[in-house]
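For the sake of transparency, this paper describes our internal protein records without simplification. The record that follows is passed on verbatim for readers who wish to inspect the format:
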Amino acid sequence: MIEHTFAPVEVAEGILRVTYPMPMKPGHVHGYLVATDEGYLLVDTGLGLGDAPWGSAGIERIAITHFHPDHVGATADAVEATGAPVLQGAIDHYQCEKVWGSDAWVPELAAWFARQGVPPEETAELLEVGSVYRQFVHFVPEARLLREGDEVAGWSVVEFPGHADGHICLLKDGVLIAGDHLLPRITPAVGLYPDSRPDPLGDFMASLERVAELAPRLALPGHGDPIDDPAGRAREIVLHHHERLAETESGLRDGPRSGYELSCTLFPGDLGAAQRRFAVAETLSHLERLVVEGRAVRGGDDGYVTYTQP
């Protein structure tokens, strides 16, 4: 079992893994300390729980793979302790400011979930759970914005949209610092949200195909153990989503369904508010991919969005 500790573990030459605690599943998240000529590049900071000894780590730069709380949350804490500058994908930084830096996001998200068929009482519960994480997200408004093809300490910046629209990874000498783009045991969540790219699942599957083409020899994920066959794992996840698309399409046989209604078929049972929120967003990303492929039609009235077979 992976320890929840800042104590570094060498996972590749010149790369140390640090593991931060998470109060929700999967219970941990990894960051990486990458040796450079000036010191360490820290990739991802964990949640802002205030318990990581940043000042003793020799960090000279901080890079963020994506804006989700467990990856960006402690960034301001790390900057305060080290004085290191922050590097973040341009698209990701925009979404980080929109979601974590503005009070307007919560009512926008509430209205959007309501249009997807989520009942009012469940919408309130979904948002309450989501708002809990805001107190643990200490992002930095000032960052050097990264784009595809940029370099950070000799590592190439690669944009892999899907799990997050602006998700970036770092690639060098066959080693991919993967964030949540590629995970060894679970499939990264891919959801549709307000103001996101219109086809996040399509983006994700294309990004996975690109991993297969690049064929790195090792991937260092944000959760779980190192991946020795990243191309093979990418193909497995693509296959999984093809199967889920078929299941989603089958769920439309009996007429129009909202994203919420179909999520209860694809992800049955009492998941709790947090997991239901992810289930609705994940269902919607599959529905929108079906729309793009001509296998479903988006419609609706009375303020509700529904989907049906053509």
Notes: The radius of gyration is 19 Å.
